[in-house]
Amino acid sequence: MVERKMKIDFAPVDVPLQRRLQTAAVGQWVFSFLGLAPTCIILFIYLLFTRFWLISVLYAIWWYYDYDTPARGGRRMPFLCGLKLWQHMRDYFPIKLVKTADLDPRHNYILGFHPHGVLVAGAFNNFCTYATGFPQLFPGLTSYLLMLPLWFRAPFFRDYIMCAGLIPSDKESASYVLRKRRSGRAVVIAVGGAPEALDAHPGTFNVLLANKKGFIKMAMEHGAHLVPVFSFGENEVYDQVENPQGTWLRWIQERLQSIMGISLPLFHARGIFQYSFGLMPYRRPIHTVVGRPIKVEKKLKPTAEELDALHQLYMDKLSNLFDEHKGNYGVDKDVHLNFV
Fold this sequence. Notes:
Elements: H1 17-47, H2 53-65, H3 78-81, H4 84-92, E1 95-99, E2 109-114, H5 121-127, H6 134-137, E3 142-147, H7 157-162, E4 166-168, H8 171-179, E5 185-190, H9 193-197, E6 206-207, H10 214-222, E7 225-232, E8 239-240, H11 248-260, E9 267-268, E10 286-290, H12 304-325, E11 338-339
Parallel strand pairs: 1-10, 2-5, 2-7, 3-4, 3-5, 6-11
Antiparallel strand pairs: 7-10, 8-9
């Protein structure tokens, strides 16, 4: 039997400095997404058993008094959102935010982001940073990206993600932003959530939306206009181990997701110093297209029929947005969204 050896494609030595900076920017973002939270938890516990124990004690006191801040709009720091670092991340893929219509800052909005992808790179770079020009494209709007509440329970890490405009993905947190008298708030929801990440395979266009009506109801209760958003290329930046429905791997992933609240896709792409394997995403373009707003009248107790009608209208508008723009981003004209 002939043993096959994997050939490693190393990065050339003469890579331009600009590309190295882009790789470094994305590398720190991937680490922040995958490893910073557990690192912060370990650090918090470790300090308690050293001469620096007072740091953890003082932080615990601060945490107690600041516990509800994530659910009350967080603590965005414009300085952090505008760092040059995020422009390097933008240029790595690159990522572009595409506007199709004005969003009147006299209203509040719920932006449904599709698809989730593996690490929602497009959603973060477009709506948590200023790198792709969100403030210029949509003047007067402030975006809030929803993230799993689990991450806001990690000491230190919670403060970092709040600085970028992230808030917990629960009804209380989103409703707090939308019910404030001040208008011009845009809540961004990756509607498919963690379960949709398990279907984030290159070349697939599965959208977990058919039974997702919570954000529709929230929009009606607060009179927030709905805006469909489709991010072309979001599923292309990582490969994932095949896990179709009915396989043992998918069963285990869905079981763990139901217990832990987070999905665990077995994804891979390239490394930092080589292109053959690793957790760094591929350099593939992401175009996040923001659709036209769907006007929503405020109704505190919408009927099931009203919810179904608005939900169907939203799916139709999302499908139309996809079909209208897919030709610009290399998607075959015969391909359509698959709502699951």
